[in-house]
Amino acid sequence: MANNGLVSVASRFSVGETIDRLVETVTQAGLRVFARIDHAAGAHEIGASLRPTELLIFGHPKGGTPLMQDQQLAGIDLPIKALAWQDAQGKVWLSHSDAHWLAERHGLGDTSHNAVAAIAAGMAKVVAAAAGVDQS
User: Fold this and answer.
1) CA torsion 26→128→13→93, rounded to 10°?
2) Mean pLDDT per segment of 10 residues, for the chain of length 136 residues?
């Protein structure tokens, strides 16, 4: 599923397990996990309900720096974020911004092309692994 620059992949696991798997996958790939945010827990703190929703913020300067060297404002979308969430039917999704959409959004040029392609390919791999999806 793609929508407004977002890519969403159905996960075979719960929201928590999907994010756990994503943490493991990105860490093994040499990326840094900067934050894990449980939005449903935050909603609970104020007495509100929210279906399971967790955000993971991760990346590596090697991937993001070339984008910001090209257009520094690209840093508003970095590091990379992925959101695991449960829809109204109970299906779990893992969503992230499409790297090519980010390149278009920020007017990134040829100097960023390789980094954008690497981010796109890397995201496809880590999201598939976290969601338990066959990439073939």
Assistant:
1) 100
2) 84 98 97 98 97 97 94 97 98 97 96 94 96 82
Q: What is the pTM of this model?
A: 0.94
| pLDDT value of position 134 | 80
CB-CB contact of 11 with 134 (8 Å): no
Rounded Cα gap, residues 35 and 51, in angstroms: 20
What secondary structure does DSSP assign to 36-97, as a single string?
EEEHHHHHHHTT-----EEEEEEE-HHHHHHHHHH-GGGGGG-SEEEEEEE-TTS-EEEEEE
Contact between 119 and 29 under an 8 Å Cβ cutoff? The reply is no
The Cα–Cα gap between 136 and 129 comes to 12
Q: In what side-by-side order are the strands of the sheet with 6-11?
A: 2-3, 6-11, 92-97, 80-86, 53-59, 32-38
Separation CA 67–CA 109 (nearest Å): 9
Give the other-Cβ count within 10 Å of 111's Cβ: 12
Per-residue confidence (pLDDT) for residue 135, from 0 to 100: 66
Answer for the pair 7, 99: CB distance below 8 angstroms, yes or no: no
